[in-house]
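[STRUCTURE TOKENS]
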Amino acid sequence: MKPCLLCHPENEKVLWQDDRCRVIFVEDPDYPGFCRVIWGAHVKEMTDLTEPERSHLMAVVFVTEEILRETMHPDKINLASLGNQVPHLHWHVIPRFADDAHFPDPIWVVRKHVTRTHTKTGAELARELAQRLGDQLD
């Protein structure tokens, strides 16, 4: 059995964290601003959490979404909690644009077209998001 990639992360760019969860920046040139909110303890489902833990996790997801909307002005935000490949509770928070590679389909399907060019580098965007998450969540 392979170790859990979210319990034993490698090369994560952590934007914010507390003692229960963390927000990471996903380096994907097709989807700038792509973040994951990861629960710290190894659980599979939202119902494995207590009600206060669920509320805390979703508050972090919603603040992450809000900051991405304010920072990037996407056409849509996708929220997804799948866990089929990595059964460790986490939420994908993905800014979507009408001219991205898969729009309007999910990002995990076959690409529809070439992606657009973005003005900020991944590093610039990650710094800005980390600052704003810290301002909102600390």
